[in-house]
Amino acid sequence: MAKVTVDDIEIEVPNGFTVLQAAEAAGKEIPRFCYHERLSIAGNCRMCLVEVEKMPKPVASCGQPVGDGMVIHTDTEKVRQARRSVMEFLLINHPLDCPICDQGGECDLQDEAMGYGRDHSRYHEAKRAVADKYLGPLVKTVMTRCIQCTRCIRFLAEVAGVPELGATSRGEAMEITNYVERALSSELSGNIIDICPVGALTSKPYAFVARTWELRKTDGIDVLDAVGTNIRIDSRGGEVLRILPRINDAVNEEWLADKSRFALDGLKRRRLDRPWIRRDGKLREASWDEAFAAIAARMSGLDPARIGAIAGDLCDVESMMALKDLMVSIGSRNLDCRQDGATLDWSRREFYRFNTTIEGIDEADALLIVGANPRREAPVLNARLRRRWVENTKFFAGMVGPTADLTYDYAHLGTDGAALRTLLDPEHPFIKRLVAAERPMLILGQSALARPDGPAILAACWKIAETTGMLSADWHGFNVLHNAAARMGAFDLGFVPEGGKDIAAMFDGGTDFLWLLGADEIDMGRISAETFVVYQGHHGDRGAARADVILPGAAYTEKPGTYVNIEGRVQTTLRAVFPPGQAREDWTILRAFSAVLGKPLPYNDLEALRRRLAEANPVFAEPDTIRRIAHTGGVKPAGDSSAIADAAFAPAFETYYQTDPISRASPTMTKCIAETAAPMRQAAE
Q: What is the pTM for the complete model shown?
């Protein structure tokens, strides 16, 4: 530790801290443009100048390491004058177009100019102009505003692992460019908008939509993947206009995936805003009473064993709890949440959880991926894996599955089940490397578990984890990577066929009545034509097209709800806007229908329902709390590890940009697919 004095405040900071970090530890705010806590130090904006005793001139605090006994002054007249001069240089070429800039009101340059800018300029030369660059349908550029802080370059190269931006020329002629004019290929490209300190990079879909002071800001949780990214939902009136990340170092740090950020325009398209009943083969508008009466009439007299329910990938825990209680009240145990048919073992939480935890990735030194592509399935989590690979030179990775650019090096061990079988041999070279590692981890993807030999793959991966020392009292390296935000919560509350029929059995003539709670990722063609289908959801997607009765529900931005992320962290979200038309929160729909059925659910408000959740599983009583599970040995997941088929592993989904009803309704996501398809067509030609 080093003792330093910052503005007469003596503090101790770790060796290796910079002067800027020491000043912030002492509670002093240092202006900066190029410095960012999660990027490498560039030291090129010079705005963070401070005065250090025994040094002849002000120093850039972001790149100056502290020394024991150092005396730092952050607010002397000399420092203020130096910062004013830097600001004057920055504004020589800046267009000063704040009134028509989307960054106005949340611009670092604007804020600092208030403190260090002059009311006039001593430079009369014409301002330089820079051609705007095309970065795709997500990021808008006005490069004349750029101050060459290089944050965007460093983010794409260091965090996203896709170094597609760089600088050309020198001095006044320097430009930030993508060299070849095409869309950015990173699934995290929208984060360069957040970290840009000026208005050079802004959101193209959000351009000229609203000012920050017009927006109501609501804390939420992203549900378009299973990481549980903390988000802020910005709305005006009854419309969601923007989604931004919130800082949570344990989950997403401060990053957000592009689909989660930009698919929000799908929230106002193809919406279900009133009940519908199919009459004479056509869906016709109906009242809530008519819809409930039609469902109750169809359920009347049915054998409970012929009634089933399927929960979709975006469902909140409250709605699944209400649907489960409704089904149990009528005597049905035909419940399933695995739309993809994944054969997970839910008997113990460690069999279906990301046990290492997201923060635990920072401790791993080896990785084996089986049947997963983290870059596509969980971009924010993949960025953390990349950071571990960058920071720890001993870290190594291997993958069984289709080849892909994961943004970090890995040994490709094969593409099929036969390759996975070879890893059961303790003498396999890669297995020997895992055994030698101190904290190895394994990530098992959903596409592998959705195969007919899914139980065998699960058992094989568990056996590999045991063989290589991934399972111990202080480290649990076995991880399942979910794609559905609802999957962990559904398992935790028991929305599974315990004593009932699973999704395959329900499809194979096992039900006469099927309740789809936001379930749109199933093959609707497998549902018997005689089966009566109730679809409860928020978009007119696949489930609504097959339904006999449609009950309009609320999207994740339109209701308070609880979600459990891949590591088992229980997180709650707030309502940002109200659902459209006659749509209602899903659990209230189920509560109202239960009364029509004569079996009212035992809760009338959200607090009572959440008490019911805590009764179902104590984890719901501890929101935002995560505990690592220590492996105690003994029980293993069901399955015969020797029964793995030779078939090749398939990707989890066809395209990253459209995997759910919201993103499929999004015009912006459609543009992204067109952009990614264009280079593929050109290569084919």
A: 0.94
